[in-house]
């Protein structure tokens, strides 16, 4: 992909608003970092931290990460960088660098599902279970044959209740609270400073990001999906670095 100019028309590639009027709402895995064999092994490309810090300054602090991960994982990988973080697909929210996470009332995951999840990964080598506040993820990237047994198990646990839902992720199945999605996180962020009054610009790569994209567009902004709008996560990051350098 040739790096499109941020000021190019839509027909020639993605565009962003002028940086002084924009709010940036960015996904993490598959967008700011490439997909890696395990959640812990993602790597930040050289220069990304500087790009994000410069972006945050240019847009008056209106930089948020909107992720499926718990907020503390973003603090680990991007310490002190985004102003706000929406975690667990929008279940959790911290609006400022020095602020506290907003309180969440979430139904606890039934203990027997957690126990069965651990039994299940014990039967499939190199699989793992990731725990979240109100959900869990069964990862099978290194053991693709576990996809169907994992999906079947989760669907069995979820049958007959409507508090939790199953969501497909990249080489993983996730249980999360019904009705939680990234679109709500975008709306909540855009309702308050430093985001309010700006034009939202959302980029993501996954099924879960489509809600964020729709919300950004509904609020008069832009939403882009990798690989439809940027061919790869690396191409998006190159575009972002160019946008920041030329702003
Ligand atoms: O919303 P995101 O920031 O894109 O997070 C989505 C999920 O990402 C993580 O899992 C995925 O990325 C891992 C690292 O590249 C990869 O090993 C795994 O196979 C992917 O499913 C994360 O672990 C999940 O909690 C997020 O929901």
Strand content: 15-25%
Mean pLDDT: 94
Order of strands, widest sheet? 4-3-2-1-9-10
- Here the CATH topology of the largest domain equals Rossmann fold
Question: Count of DSSP helices?
Answer: 7
Query: Roughly what percent helix?
Result: 25-40%
Largest sheet: 6 strands, mixed
Small molecules bound in the structure, each named once: ligand L263DTV3
Question: Can you give a write-up of this model?
Answer:
The chain is α/β, with parallel strands linked by helices and 247 residues long. The chain has 2 domains: 18-103 and 180-246, Rossmann fold (3-Layer(aba) Sandwich), CATH 3.40.50; 111-177, Alpha-Beta Plaits (2-Layer Sandwich), CATH 3.30.70. The protein has helices at 48-58, 71-77, 111-123, 147-158, 182-190, 209-218, 233-246; strands at 22-26, 63-66, 84-87, 92-94, 128-132, 135-139, 164-169, 172-177, 199-204, 222-225. The strands form 2 sheets. The protein has a 6-stranded mixed beta sheet with strand order 4-3-2-1-9-10, sandwiched between helices. A 4-stranded antiparallel beta sheet has the order 5-6-8-7, with helices on one face. Helix 1 packs across helix 7 (233-246) and helix 5 (182-190) packs parallel to helix 6. The longest helix has 14 residues, at 233-246. The radius of gyration is 18 Å and the shape is globular. Mean pLDDT is 94; it is low at 1-11. The structure holds ligand L263DTV3. Residues 27-30, 35-39, 42, 67-69, 130, 137, 139, 141, 169-172, 206, 208 line the site of ligand L263DTV3. Ligand L263DTV3 is lined by residues 27-30, 35-39, 42, 67-69, 130, 137, 139, 141, 169-172, 206, 208.
């Amino acid at each position: 992909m040739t790096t499109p100019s941020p000021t190019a028309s839509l027909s020639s590639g993605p565009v962003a608003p002028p940086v002084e009027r924009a709010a940036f709402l960015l996904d993490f895995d598959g967008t700011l970092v490439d997909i890696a064999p395990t959640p812990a092994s993602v790597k930040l490309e050289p220069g990304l931290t500087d790009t994000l810090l410069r972006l945050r300054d240019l847009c008056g602090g209106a930089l948020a990460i909107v992720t499926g991960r718990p907020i503390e994982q973003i603090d680990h990988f991007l310490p002190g960088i985004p102003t706000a973080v929406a975690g667990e697909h929008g279940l959790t929210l911290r609006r400022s660098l020095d602020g506290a996470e907003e309180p969440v009332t979430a139904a606890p995951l039934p203990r027997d599902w957690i126990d069965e999840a651990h039994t299940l990964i014990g039967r499939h080598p190199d699989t793992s279970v990731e725990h979240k506040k109100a959900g869990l993820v069964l990862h099978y990237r290194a053991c693709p044959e576990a996809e169907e047994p994992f999906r079947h198990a989760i669907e069995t646990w979820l049958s007959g209740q409507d508090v939790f839902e199953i969501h497909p992720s990249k080489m993983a199945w996730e249980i999360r609270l019904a009705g939680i999605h990234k679109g709500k996180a975008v709306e909540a962020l855009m309702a308050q400073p430093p985001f309010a009054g700006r034009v939202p610009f959302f980029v993501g790569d996954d099924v879960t990001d489509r809600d964020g994209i729709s919300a950004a567009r509904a609020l008069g902004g832009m939403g882009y999906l990798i690989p439809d709008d940027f061919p790869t996560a690396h191409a998006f990051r190159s575009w972002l670095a160019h946008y920041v350098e030329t702003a």
